[in-house]
Design goal:
Aminopeptidase; 8-stranded mixed β-sheet; 18% strand; globular; binds zinc ion; signal; DUF2817 domain-containing protein; zinc; metalloprotease
Amino acid sequence: MSRSPAARVTLAASAALVLVAGAPPAAPAAQDARPAVVQSRVIGHSVKDRPIRAWRVGDPDARTRAVALASLHGDEAAPRMILQQIRDGRPVEGIDLWVVPVVNPDGFLADRRHNARGVDLNRNFPREWVRTATSGRRPASEPETRALMRFLDRVDPRFVVSFHQPLYGIDTYGPKKRWFGRRLSEELNLPRKDFACGSGCHGTLTQWFNNRFDGVAVTVEYGADPSWRRMNVVAPRQLLRALGGSR
Ligand SMILES: [Zn+2]
């Protein structure tokens, strides 16, 4: 499709105005039959022009604002269910939480790690970016990367949880992640690990966010095949508790 970048900026600006005008905090969005959802938003579009959707649950006036996202790698599909369950379940209290279950819709539908241009989105962020066969033509070259950057800039969350598979652990490398990483490890019942991305991390979402914002972003990896019950029943409750929320 041929929507121009300028048209997208205009759309994004309209979305921001809607956000400012806003619905009252406790009222569910009228177009959304999900009682937990207080707001929903298209944060951008994929290479193939598929919408990337975010849902806000909880209390917009809560002290802690957080973002939880999944399927940045399209073939790591299980943890998105945690976020869909939080979105589709009962109302959430005590936290202002945005969930983005599928950041990479083209990769997700193709069951492929990369986006439709063969780029690993978690190597495409403009922080210590390195040119490789799959890191993109330049930092933030991909529309999915830019959509997430704009969204996080606007929300400015205290916590970001980025779900992946299959390394089974929580990345606590670096002092900034230590406290929140330990908390996630205890609540989600996953071991703490130092992920080094093979030969060092370049252009990852957490590198970019942790360098740019006061908040802290942590990578959470489940195993290759977590149980349905863990994704749909146990982990949603655990994640809310780790972030200070409940339902
Ligand atoms: Zn991954």
